[in-house]
Design brief:
5-stranded mixed β-sheet; 3-stranded antiparallel β-sheet; globular
Length: 266
């Protein structure tokens, strides 16, 4: 199925209603019995699902980081002053402006092939994409630099795939259980809890990245301003038994540092 979010590529997601546009038509299909399940990039899934739906499975996370894609320069810091960089993500734009305020940032929509073709046509000097998307399409060789944490944070749940179904469809839920990857679920639940507490959406630049080690979760969070490059950062570590509490803790830290002003909540 092709959703409205896929079809409208001449305007930014924040202008046409957000990433939920990728879900609604799929949910209608499940509601009417046309489909039993829908597969999503979890970073595109709203923090709150409308009933009667649930995320029955979260698959093992792929590469969570952003990719610097360029045909001439080896990394973001190697770009010459005034270079034109394309990205549709306000989160990426905020971090880009903070790191390289001298660059010209252009909005870039469309599928991966469309975005790469615009780079190859010299519409942009470089573009920013998700590593996982490129790798899943067999295009990993286009990655010139992986933008790594803690200096650069990905979108909440980036690199993870989730399968959604009706919450009253016990047969489909049972089948999907085999796809569940518990460590990934813990990490993305912490990230999504932080985002939920911040009332986050694609209209605001929020980033989050959690890792799991020795029974403990570590979460890094960021809120930014795509116009000025101002960034607010926070992090915390806690027992993995309550990822939602960790997410709320990092969100609280961000708010205390002024994130509410950037999010329009203050």
């Amino acid at each position: 199925m092709t959703t409205r979010g896929d079809r409208i590529i001449d305007r930014s997601l924040s202008d046409i209603g957000g990433k939920g546009l990728f879900l609604k038509e799929l949910e209608i299909a499940m509601r009417h019995g046309v489909a039993d399940a829908a597969v999503h990039s979890l970073k595109d899934v709203p923090m709150e699902l409308d009933g009667p739906f649930a995320l029955a499975a979260v698959l093992e996370r792929a590469d969570p980081f952003d990719a610097f894609v360029c045909n001439r320069w080896d990394g973001l810091d190697a770009l010459p002053p005034g270079a034109r960089v394309g990205s549709s993500s306000l989160r990426r734009q905020a971090q880009l402006r903070a790191r390289r305020p001298d660059l010209r940032i252009g909005d870039l929509r469309g599928n991966v092939g469309t975005r790469l073709s615009k780079l190859d046509a010299n519409d942009y000097d470089a573009i920013l994409l998700a590593c996982a998307g490129l790798q899943r399409l067999g295009l990993g060789e286009r990655i010139r630099e992986r933008l790594l944490a803690p200096d650069w944070l990905p979108a909440v749940a980036q690199g993870a795939i989730a399968v959604e179904c009706r919450d009253d469809d016990d047969a489909t839920t049972a089948l999907l259980a085999a796809l569940e990857h518990a460590p990934t679920r813990l990490c993305v639940e912490a990230e999504r809890a932080m985002n939920r507490q911040l009332h986050g959406s694609c209209q605001v630049p929020i980033a989050g990245y959690a890792t799991l080690a020795d029974g403990a979760l570590s979460l890094q969070g960021l809120v930014g301003d795509a116009l000025t490059g101002r960034l607010v950062r926070a992090s915390a570590k806690a027992d993995a038994s309550d990822p939602h509490a960790l997410g709320r803790e990092v969100a609280g830290q961000l708010m205390r540092q002024g994130a509410g002003e950037l999010l329009g909540l203050a």
